[in-house]
Amino acid sequence: MKAMVINKYGENAVFEAQEVNKPTPKQGHVLIKIAASSVNTVDTMIRKTGKDLPLSPDTPAILGMDFAGTIEEVGEGVEGFAVGDEVYGCAGGLADLPGTLAEYMAADHRLIAHKPKNLSMREAAALPLVGITAYEGLIRANIQKGQKVLVHGGSGGVGHVALQLAKYFGAEVYSTGGGEKQLQLIEKLGATPINYKTEAVEAYVEKYTDGAGFDIVYDSVGAGNLINSFNATALNGHVATTVTLCELDLSIAHFKGLSLHVVFMLIPMLHNIYREQHGEILKSMAQIIEAGHLTPVLDEQHFSLEEAGAAHARLESGKAMGKVVIEN
User: Fold this and answer.
1) Alpha-carbon span 17 to 308, nearest angstrom
2) Which of 15, 254, 255, 276 is 20 to 30 A (C-alpha) from 47?
3) Residue 31, SS3 per DSSP
């Protein structure tokens, strides 16, 4: 089969088209013909950082984690899936799991679910990693109907899904953005937009919560922005975040009694534990999508498998609005 392969990591790493062996599904796995895959920040980190990142696969490496496609073969011990089923998931591209930038991949059936019927392959491929991340963070923060939820970075990959899911769960949702297009998208998705460049944390906390703070803050920006999240959260509130690779003074969190939930959704793939939870989340998301409560936002530019490098560059440019997707 054809695959886009990284033979050497680094800032100038390139994808090379190569013929590689088509995988065979072992027990508990299915063979999937890939229709589309999406690019996530972690993919670009692996390409540039290589083995200095503990989760990077050995070279030659087939990257790519998210996909949508059709099952062509079912391994022993697989239940609930059959040849011809359209599925989506996040199931490779790290450690010893070959990725999605190829014509086929063998995936653990616990990491996948049937594709939402009302989404195209391209749309479905955009959702697994960011969707599972958003869903997990909100559930761990014990989201409840009627709560006030703030999403930092509501026009981004994780943020635009967290925003919609929080609304689906019955919360009153607010979200920060830094430009007119971002703020327009946030409002279109059903949240109250907040321009973090012109509105101070204290100002919008006072304006929207009478100074009490938000019940949950989902921070998809992370790092230094976590201090803003702590300041925006109500006493005994919850902060969920995807980016904590930093040193931080937790004094504010201590004196406010905050619960901090760090979401690292790659753990099931890396450590082969709780994988069935990802399949269940994807199944739940498909139901939410089919009921009309969640829509992925895709970047306007289209990329083919051979243009994997350009797709990575598009995401890294910061100019993409929505998920960057590669189509086979």
Assistant:
1) 10
2) 276
3) strand
